[in-house]
Amino acid sequence: MPEQNEHIIHPDKNSASSPHGKNLTSYFSGKYLFLSILLSLTSMGLLIYFTYSPGLFDRLYWNRTPGLFIALFVVGLRIWFLSAKIRYLSESRLSWPASFRVVLCWEFTSSVTPSTIGGGPMATYVMTREKLSLGQSSAIVIYGIMLDQLLLIFAIPMLFGIGLYFSVIPEGAGLAGHGLMFLIYLLLLGYAGFLTYGVFRNPYILKRTVNFVFSLPFLRRYRYKIAREAEVLESYSHELRKKPRSFLLRAFGLSVMAWLAKVWLPGIVVLSFVPADVLLSFLRGVAMTLAGMFMPTPGGSGGLEGLYALFMGSLMERREFLGIAVFMWRLISFYVVVGAGLMAMSWYLNVKVVDVVNEKKTDEP
Question: H helices within the chain, ranges in order?
C-alpha cells in the first residue's frame, strides 16, 4: 500500500470546481436515455414474442429460479469491487458512500450513452463534486480505464486459446459471424495493447498518434480539444509510472474481480432457468461481453439483447425460456443500475441546490 502522501496527481488550484464549468446534466442526454430504454424494450419484446409459448411458467424449473437472486447479488458485488477500486485509486480521499455514488453515476452514464462517449466524463465531474481536484479525478478515471485495458491483454489471448477446445463462439454465428468476432477481438487486443504501452511505457507516442488521427479532415474540428486532452494524458502517464508495483497489482486485482462479476452474470441467469454447461456459459459470457463493447447504440441496447440470444440461446435446452431469460438479465444488469444511478445523480443535484441556497444566504447583507 503506498504512503498516504503519494497522490496519483498532485492537487491543483481547481480542487472543488467542476470540469469546464459544466453541470451534472451536461454529461448525458435525455435523448440517449429514452433511446436506450426504447431499444432495449423493443428488442426484448420481440424476443419474448417469438419465443413465448402458452403455459411457459408451468414448465419453469422453479427450483432453479432462486439463482436470479444470486445474479442480483453478483451485480452488487461488481458495484462493490468497482467502488473499492475507485476508493483505492483515490487513496481513501473518497469515502465509501462517495465511491459508491461515483461508480453508480459512471455505470449509469455508460449504460445510456454510446460506447464512444462512455461514463468517464461523468465520473470525473462527480469526483470534483466530492472535493477532489480536477487533476486527481481525471487521473483516477484514466488509471481505472487503463487497468481494464490491461485485463483485456490477458483475457483475449486466453479466449483465443480456449476457443480451440470449446465452442466459445456459437455455431449459429456462421462463418461470417466467426470472422467478425475474430476481427473484433483483434481490434480490442490491438487497442488495449497500444493504450497500455502508451500510458505505461511511451506516452509521447500515444500523444502523437492521437494528434495525427484527429488531424484527419472529418475529425479536425475536435483536434484542439483532443490536443489539450492528449497533453493532460501524457502528464498523467508520467505520474502513474511512479506508482509502486504493489499499487498496480492490488488495483488490477479489484478490476479483475469486477470484470469477473460482469461476465459471469449472463451465465448465472441462464443457469437460473435451465441446466447448462457451467464452464461454457462462463466462456460465452466473456465472449459476449467483449463483442458488446463494439455496440454503437446507447448502452449497447438492442444489440446486447441480440448478442445474448446468439451466445446463450444455444445453451438453453428449452428455447421458450430465452425471451424471459433476456428480460431478467437486462432487468438485473441494466434497469437496476439505471435506477440506482439516477438516485445517485439526484443526490448531487440536491447538493447543488443546497450549495446555491447557502451561497445566496451568505451574500445577503
Answer: 30-51, 67-89, 96-112, 120-129, 134-162, 174-200, 203-213, 223-240, 245-271, 278-292, 303-313, 322-330, 336-363
Lowest mean pLDDT among 2-6, 56-60, 94-98: 2-6
Sign of CA dihedral 213, 214, 219, 220: negative
Angle at the Cα of 220 (from 219 to 225), degrees rounded to 5?
95
> Structure pTM?
0.83
For 335, which DSSP code?
I
- pLDDT score of 75: 95
In the chain the first and final C-alpha atoms are separated, in Å, by: 50
**Mean residue pLDDT across the chain:** 79
Q: 138-175, pLDDT tens digit by residue?
A: 778 878 888 888 888 888 888 888 888 888 888 877 77
284 Cβ contact partners less than 8 Å away, ≥ 6 residues apart: 168, 170, 266, 267, 311, 312, 315
Largest separation between any pair of C-alpha atoms in the chain = 77
User: Cβ distance 88 to 71 under 8 Å?
Assistant: no
Amino acid at 325: A
